[in-house]
Design goal:
The chain is mainly alpha-helical and 745 residues long. It has 32 helices and nine strands. Strands 2-3-4-1-5 form a five-stranded parallel sheet, sandwiched between helices. A two-stranded antiparallel ribbon has the order 6-7.
Length: 745
């Protein structure tokens, strides 16, 4: 099983001055506006279409580029979007790998880099977060999800007046106000230029004036000027001359068109082009092409070698065959944070899937695909408790389309249900640790609603469902899932599931302000973990959660001892995610003991770690505590700015400060000191300024690497006598254990 490569260092943009009168920026606008991919090949021709589409975007809020598969809709839409970027950017959401209509909203939120851990629906989050933004949304590959996409786009356009949508698909969305932009095949001159450019890429020195001009023009006419067909044809020039291409193309037209007279002519042409490329492949190349159709989204070589080898295809031959398919434009190559990956265009994949169905091998290949990604998820869960946590998070992000495909297969095939339950539960670190609570809830709800006949798999799905529901603030479903898990585990003798159920019930008591019950349940769970030999990030988080219950009840020394133990285990194992929460508690303890420099050092490191994991809960808790430190040091204006930063993050986590007397004390103390020094008017102004800072800039500000709202770059922090409360205070900092302490963004 492959281990992930180290991801690129995350950038840390400096904070920018905020204008209280301007609308809040997009949640992801602290970096380059939008997520349009860089063009890897030259954009050839289409100048008239590009000008017309760009002009249309200035006049209409919803435009759908339609046309046959392979005609170049996606490329034209992306180029037009790049030319008319609005204030908050142009954002691409690709839906070709999404199969479940319920995941359209999740895919859009993911593309927009929006994070939200509440129990709100993704649609409501999108409506709330995009209100007031001025952005262009490029929706590509929606044709198999027309109803779900149209419904979402309609609601977004109605509620978000600054939003424009550019869709690209084989059919219109069918909405009022939609302007359809039909895209015809390329003009002959453009088609010839495209063929020549792509041919030169695989056959250096190729040119239209090299005696091939007439043959190329004839090829373009025969292929009807469809870009995908032209690129497939150009990819064959390594083996055939343009004249040979013409001769073989003529044969394939006669062979394939007659079998599909019910298709539109251009569909026949594209199918012929793809089928012709398929026929020109060797038997092994065709076999691999067919088997690759089970993948969804990008995939890597090791996955291909496992899933597709066997029964006529040796694993050691796969690399050479992949190279040939790349050369023929059947596959495309792309760089990712985890290394080189491959992608198959949807039209090409669909063609391969038809051949796979014809051979009767679809179910077997989907099971092999499921087995690989089940193994990957299992390995990642184990490696989460290691120095490779960040790499695991990056890998899972890249593999989500295939993990979704594996889950969908398991949860739609009755004999596979128990494996779907196991996979949904095993991915807890993805749902919790990588900021995908809403999607995790979707899969877990589906999984536990089915009977798979394997209690252990269902029990794992149940306690993970309870965990996720706690993090979302959905206490009733959480209690139901955890109680069912505990009862079933005790009845069947599953000590592991029983321990996790008791642990998460303790978390539920913690967020409900029932500290004695929380302490009792957490101690019981930790004792059981020790008895059965369980040690991982969840177990360590249980110790941090117990430390918080002790701190809330005034036993600060015992809380510190627990967190120091967690800190040592984390250092020994290279664990960083749970370490951040232990540092948070230790930082608060240092502040209460009158050690402000140490306290700031500990909580600053905590914030660095939380931000690296996109852990919104850990981030906002650290910012709240740093705001209190800053007020104590005498910088009331900066403390108010940091409280404004926190006020922007809390709605994506849950109820601000959880509505709890335990969690609310530090915030109230900070606010009281800042208001006393600044006065209400200046305090509110600084609060608004902090709320306008984009996420990375806000974190940089909290870490002391940002800019002042009014006076420019911060050059240092004025330190005053520490004014922390006495160690016996009942106003501890906001707990890192809100909803289990592992919400991430």
């Amino acid at each position: 099983m492959r281990r992930p490569q180290r991801p690129d260092d995350r950038r840390n943009d400096s904070a920018a001055a905020a204008d209280p009168s301007s609308p809040p920026p997009d949640p992801a606008a602290d970096g380059p506006a939008g997520n349009l991919p860089a063009e890897l090949t030259a954009f050839v021709g289409r100048s008239a279409e590009l000008a017309a589409l760009t002009e249309a975007l200035a006049a209409a809020r919803l435009i759908t580029v339609t046309g046959v598969g392979g005609v170049g809709k996606s490329r034209l839409a992306a180029r037009a979007a790049a030319a008319v970027r609005p204030r908050d950017g142009a954002w691409l959401v690709e839906l070709d790998s999404v199969r479940d209509p319920e995941l359209v909203e999740h895919a859009l939120a993911s593309a927009l880099e929006l994070t939200d851990h509440t129990s709100r629906s993704p649609r409501q989050v999108l409506l709330d977060r995009l209100a007031g933004r001025e952005l262009l949304l490029v929706v590509d590959g929606f044709e198999h999800l027309v109803a779900a996409t149209a419904s979402l786009v309609h609601d977004l356009l109605v509620r978000c007046p600054g939003l424009r949508v550019l869709a690209a698909g084989r059919r219109p969305l069918g909405m009022a106000g939609e302007r359809v932009f039909p895209l015809a095949p390329m003009a002959e001159s453009d088609a010839a230029a495209l063929f020549a450019e792509r041919a030169a890429a695989c056959l250096p020195g190729f040119a239209l004036d090299g005696g091939h001009h007439a043959e190329v023009l004839e090829l373009c006419r025969r292929l009807d000027g469809i870009p995908l067909a032209l690129e497939l044809a150009a990819g064959r020039l390594r083996a055939l001359s343009p004249g040979q291409l013409l001769a073989r193309l003529d044969d394939r037209f006669r062979l394939l068109t007659g079998a599909h007279r019910d298709l539109l002519p251009r569909h026949q042409t594209l199918r012929t082009a793809i089928g012709w490329s398929h026929e020109l492949c060797t038997a092994q190349e065709r076999l691999l092409w067919t088997r690759l159709s089970v993948f969804s989204g990008p995939f890597d070589l090791e996955a291909v070698e496992y899933v597709c080898s066997g029964d006529g295809l040796l694993a050691e031959e796969v690399l050479d065959i992949v190279d040939e398919l790349l050369a023929q434009s059947v596959l495309t190559r792309e760089e990712s944070p985890t290394g080189v990956r491959y992608r198959m265009l949807d039209t090409v994949r669909a063609y391969g899937a038809e051949w796979l169905r014809a051979t009767g091998d679809t179910a077997r290949m989907r099971r092999r695909h499921r087995d690989w990604y089940m193994g990957l998820a299992t390995w990642c869960e184990l490696d989460w408790f290691s120095p490779r946590q960040a790499e695991v998070a990056t890998l899972v992000e890249c593999e989500l389309p295939n993990l979704r495909a594996a889950l969908e297969f398991c949860l739609t095939e009755p004999e596979e249900t128990h494996l779907g339950q196991y996979l949904a539960g095993t991915l807890w670190f993805c749902w919790v640790g990588c900021g995908r609570l809403a999607e995790g809830r979707h899969w877990l709800d589906r999984a536990v609603d089915l009977e798979g006949g394997h209690e252990e798999s269902r029990l794992k799905a149940l306690w993970v469902l309870g965990y996720v529901a706690i993090l979302q603030g959905d206490t009733v479903p959480a209690l139901c899932a955890l109680q069912e898990c505990q009862d079933t585990a005790e009845r069947t003798g599953s000590a592991v599931a029983a321990a996790y159920a008791v642990h998460r019930l303790g978390c539920l008591a913690l967020v409900s302000d029932d500290m004695p019950r929380a302490e009792r349940l957490l101690r019981t769970a930790l004792d059981e973990y020790r008895r059965i030999g369980e040690l991982n990030s969840n177990v360590l988080m249980g110790q941090v959660e117990l430390a918080m219950t002790l701190a809330f009840q005034g036993s600060l020394g015992d809380a510190v001892a627990l967190c120091e133990e967690v800190r040592q285990v984390c250092e020994d194992h290279g664990e960083r995610w749970t370490l951040a929460y232990a540092l948070y508690v230790l930082g608060y303890a240092a502040w209460t003991r009158g050690e402000p420099d140490l306290a700031r050092e500990l909580v600053t490191r905590c914030l660095d770690l939380d931000h690296a994991f996109h852990d919104l809960l850990g981030t906002v808790l650290a910012v709240e505590l740093l705001a209190l430190f800053t007020a104590t040091e005498g910088d009331a204006a900066e403390a108010a700015v940091l409280q404004g930063v926190a006020s922007r993050i809390w709605p994506s986590v849950g109820l601000p400060l959880f509505g709890s007397q335990y969690f609310g004390g530090p915030h109230a103390l900070c606010e009281a000191r800042a208001r006393e020094r600044l006065g209400d008017e200046l305090y509110e102004a600084q609060l608004r300024a902090g709320a306008l800072l984009p996420p990375d800039a806000a974190v940089a500000r909290a870490l002391g690497r940002g800019t002042d709202v009014a006076s420019g770059p911060r050059r240092g922090r004025r330190t005053a006598r520490a004014e922390g409360p006495a160690p016996h205070t009942r106003e501890p900092a906001a707990s890192p254990t809100r909803k289990g302490g592992e919400t991430t963004g």
